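Fig. S4 source data, part A: sequence.
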Amino acid sequence: MKTIADKPEVSVVTAVRNGSETIRDCIESVQGQSYPVEHVIIDGGSTDGTLEIIEEYRSNLSVVISEPDLGIYDAMNKGIRFATGDVIGTLNADDFYAHDRVIARVAQEFANQIVDASYSDLNYVASCDTRRVVRVWRSRKYRAGGFYRGWMPPHPTFFVRRKVYERYGGFDLGLGSAADYELMLRFLLKHRINAVYIPEVLVNMRCGGVSNRSLKNRLLANRMDRQAWKVNRLTPHPWTLLVKPIRKIDQYLLPFIQKLGSLLQKSFTV
């Protein structure tokens, strides 16, 4: 793996299973970065041609493992163990970086040794047309008590120092789709690691998250969110997990407001 003097080494872990439709975009967005990055891919035993696509890029991939696993968070834990970078991020197989300077921007923050983690903004894009933004997740700077008010950063933008994983552990497989929420809750609220906010979109995420596909899944996700607090011996406010999904409403409104503003600006300049 190449390194840059006095700059942190960065690893990106991608977990995938039967992701042939999107894995190419993911890999190319990592390989196209202007800053050296170690890309670790953990495949859960794909049968749809995913491995054949990965093989096309094999010479530039640091680690590729294909074997049965216990799901995406088991695969991510495995990838974190194999990653060698000082800083580790995770990028889902159907996500891709917003531009070729993402890792350089992250590394810039981690050049400061007091920084334990970073996170940024994220765009949800349409699966069939990734140029169309459907939702906009603006994270904002973390403030004490944010989690109690339903706040959380978008996990695909979350980069963490290796030493934090070594000290506080990886994903809890018993938390289902809330495993990423629990990990960030544990790191940021319980252990109060030092995280910085990068106020720009660094990741594009295709729409279609499992926890939001139906009312049943949303209720299950809410139950797992509560369990995330319980396993950390933290007590949320009575309204904390009620406002958490409500905070997402502005993610849908912002693209509409931005589009409306653009149309109004054009009408005044004609």
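Fig. S4 source data, part B ends here. Residues 249-269 form the longest helix (21 residues).
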